[in-house]
Amino acid sequence: MLKIHKNIVLNESQKPTAVQIPIKEFERLEEIIENYGLAKLMDEVKDDERLSVEEAKKYYQSLK
Questions:
Q1: Which helix (H) or strand (E) holds 16?
Q2: Which of 11, 24, 40, 51 could bond 56 through an S-S bridge, CB–CB 3.0 to 4.6 Å?
């Protein structure tokens, strides 16, 4: 499990309003979230029709 070192920021009423975390841990969280999103997208399209190399080249050329 990823250990997150957090500092809770309080307002004048001593109510939590924000959290600070080290930039390296934030970057790691971003990477985890991006990988999760990519994995979900790959899972969603796993049964889609696959293009041959030539079909893929034609398709990408049509996008330009």
A1: strand 16-20
A2: 51
Cα gap 38→46, rounded to integer Å: 12
Q: What gap in Å lies between CA 21 and CA 4, rounded to an integer?
A: 7
Cα dihedral 56, 57, 60, 61 sign: negative
Phi, psi of 5 (to 5 degrees): -95, 105
The pLDDT of residue 47 is 87
Picking from 56, 1, 49, the residue whose alpha carbon sits closest to that of residue 25 is: 1
pLDDT tens readout for residues 23-38: 999 999 999 999 999 9
20 token code pair: 């600070």
Q: What are phi and psi of 39, to 5 degrees?
A: -60, -40
Q: Identify the helix (H) or strand (E) that includes residue 8.
A: strand 7-10
